[in-house]
Amino acid sequence: MYCHHFEAKRCQSCHWLYKPYSQQLADKQQELTQLIAPLNAEKILDPVPSSEQAFRYKAKMVVLGTTEQPILGITNAQGETVDLADCPLYPSSFVPVFALCKAFISRAKLTPYHISSRCGELKYILLSQSLHTGRFMLRFVLRSKNCLASIQKHLPWLLQQLPELELCSVNLQPLPAAVLEGDTEILLTEQHLLAERLNHIPLYLQPQSFFQTQPVMAACLYQTAANWATELQQQQGSFNTIWDLFCGVGGFGLHVATPKQRLIGIEIAPAAIACASRSATELGFVDMQFQALDSAAFAHSVAQAPDLMVVNPPRRGLGQQLCQDITRLAPAWLLYSSCNAKTLADDLTLLTGYKLLKVQLFDMFAHSNHFEVLTLLQRQA
């Protein structure tokens, strides 16, 4: 991928862009192999490559510049303001939307927030697109409600200019620190969900509900987990109960389980749980239970294990207490998806009594040293 911002050293966010993509993938596979070497995995599969550009369907843009000439991008390490509206990581469909966002900022007289002076109102533009429908979710992150009335007044113009805009909201983030979003979300459109569909599984996104930035790779990751689970059941017999911890909007659980199985999904964010429950109902799940709870606290409070446990924790990993509770519960099979191979390796060391059967790398984050990993573990008698 060629990026003129990277070549000019204005933006180095894609810090591995200087490497040929084949070398990036080989380096990631080598790092993963070294980290899990002490675990004696039975099978380390070939990595799943990414598209090299236009794969990010979620943009988090700092709003800079002025009301008359807004900039969507970053302030780099040299203190320079860099407009990234033409970043090649985003699909071409994002370019006209970014242009409309800038026009809207000027039209509604939204003042960009400046951290140093703590003046201004508009901090971030958060834009997501559904791969399935092509429709958008747009969120304005504001310091206060001072600009809310102006956004509401001019929103009909934006909706007319951008009929693909499905959902629009304001998020209030009053802290002077560089925190992406706050707790308060104000919906500005009648529609409050963005519909997505991966591998024929309906998924729904709301503001503040986590979803992968790269839906094509997410679909591949979910389908691989489903394939591994299907193979197990063909060999070992059907699962009665499946848990999906840190379930988000239900991507893993809804792919791995069938409507005839008991599915329990746990996620701390109520918005994500509402989305997962809707998807499960549409798919015909009868015995399903999605709850807005802390996954570690849930596992600590129960005594009966599922047949299959799926975990997809944040970068910090499972941690010692949850690993102890998984070992205590002793599910026969464990699918662990991780975006941090280091904490994954640490957790797998703590999961005593389990054999690592399969490992596969999914390059969710091309041009960086980050990647996703899917593992399958079996409890040893």
Please tell me about this protein's structure.
This protein has 381 residues and is an alpha/beta fold. The chain folds into two domains: 18-52 and 214-379, 3-Layer(aba) Sandwich (Rossmann fold); 58-191, OB fold (Dihydrolipoamide Acetyltransferase, E2P) (Beta Barrel), CATH 2.40.50. The chain is 30% helix and 26% strand. The strands form three sheets. It has an eight-stranded mixed β-sheet with strand order 1-16-17-15-14-11-12-13, with helices on both faces. A seven-stranded mixed β-sheet has the order 4-3-2-5-6-7-8. A hairpin with a 4-residue loop joins strand 2 (58-65) and strand 3 (70-75). Helix 3 (94-107) crosses helix 4 and helix 8 (295-301) packs parallel to helix 9 (320-329). The longest helix is centred in the middle third of the chain and has 22 residues, at 215-236. The radius of gyration is 22 Å and the shape is globular. The mean pLDDT is 96.
| Average pLDDT | 96
Number of strands: 17
CATH superfamily membership of the largest domain: Vaccinia Virus protein VP39
Structural class: alpha/beta
As residue ranges, the low-confidence spans are none
Which second-level CATH architecture of the largest domain applies? 3-Layer(aba) Sandwich
H/E element sequence:
HHEEEEHEEHEEEEHEHEHEHEHEHEE
**Order of strands, widest sheet:** 1-16-17-15-14-11-12-13
CATH topological fold name of the largest domain: Rossmann fold
Number of separate helices: 10
Domains (count): 2
* Fraction of helical residues: 25-40%
User: Largest sheet at a glance?
Assistant: 8 strands, mixed
| C-alpha termini separation | 49 Å
The dominant shape is globular
Strand percentage, roughly? Answer: 25-35%
Radius of gyration: 22 Å
Report the top-level CATH class of the largest domain.
Answer: Alpha Beta
